[in-house]
Specification:
Layout (H helix, E strand, L loop, with lengths): L8 E3 L3 E2 L7 E2 L1 E4 L5 H9 L3 E3 L2 E5 L8 E6 L7 H9 L4 E5 L6 H12 L10 H8 L6 E8 L2 E10 L3 E9 L8 H15 L4 E7 L15 E5 L2 E5 L2
Parallel strand pairs: 11-12
Antiparallel strand pairs: 1-4, 2-3, 4-6, 5-6, 7-12, 7-13, 8-9, 9-10, 10-11, 13-14
Length: 233
């Protein structure tokens, strides 16, 4: 494991929770630049990345945010996931290491269509860069193409032994294809191909229905009492 002893961790101000009404949220914030190995160690301790900021919820009255990850060697798609794969067999999945011109317009359409009630609306190019990209850590883009048109992008952090799914956006006119779930399956396939052990999916919140999909990729590991616990094997 990499040495984290010299990394300063701060505490954010308390602000209204974005996911649970009437709850207040406080974050642990990494105050120093970290190496990719240290970033992966922080992921193992339940942290996440947003732009160049690495954070973890640290709320006084709530512990609803549960980090989850998929052990890719143990994963096999469920019947419903196999149907999603079959329904999208005409999509070509590619990996890019650079941002393409089509990304930002697609991101704008996605946020405008699906998240007008959230803090990410209205979308902007500056928001895209500050939220999804990183000047310090390798980022890959898992792209879904249909008949030469970009319809989905999964922003994925590349770590030494794992991948971390940062955010997925897709063509809102194709919601019937379950592209968010299909993008996770594409990231799991990528992790297997490049011999990564886990795909981190961020936080699962039981009280937030929009996050229920994260536990459908089984088996799944949840970070509880400072330990990763395997469920649904």
């Amino acid at each position: 494991m990499s040495n984290l002893q010299q990394i300063r961790i701060g505490l954010s101000q308390t602000f209204p929770c974005s996911y649970i009404d009437k709850e207040q949220e406080t974050l642990l914030l990494c105050c120093d630049p970290v190496t990719n190995a240290q970033f992966e160690h922080l992921l193992e301790l339940g942290f996440r990345r947003s732009g160049d900021q690495i954070y973890r919820p640290h709320c006084q009255t709530c512990n609803a945010c549960v980090p989850v990850r998929v052990p890719v060697a143990l994963f096999s798609p469920s019947r419903s996931q196999r149907r999603i794969i079959a329904k999208n067999k005409d999509i070509d999945w590619q990996v890019s290491e650079t941002v393409k011109p089509q990304y930002r317009p697609l991101y704008h359409r996605y946020i405008t269509s699906r998240h007008q009630d959230g803090t990410m609306y209205p979308p902007s190019d500056q928001q895209f860069d500050q939220f999804l990209l990183s000047s310090k850590h390798p980022v890959m883009f898992v792209e879904g193409w249909l008949n030469g048109k970009l319809i989905a992008v999964a922003v994925t952090d590349l770590l030494l032994t794992s991948l971390s799914a940062t955010y997925t956006f897709f063509d809102p006119d194709m919601s019937h294809r379950s592209l968010g779930k299909r993008a996770i399956l594409a990231q799991i396939d990528l992790a297997k191909r490049i011999k990564r052990e886990h795909l981190y999916l961020g936080y699962y919140i039981g009280a937030c229905p929009k996050m229920s999909y994260k536990t459908e990729f089984r088996p799944v590991e949840r970070f509880h009492n400072d330990q990763w616990q395997l469920q649904g094997r």
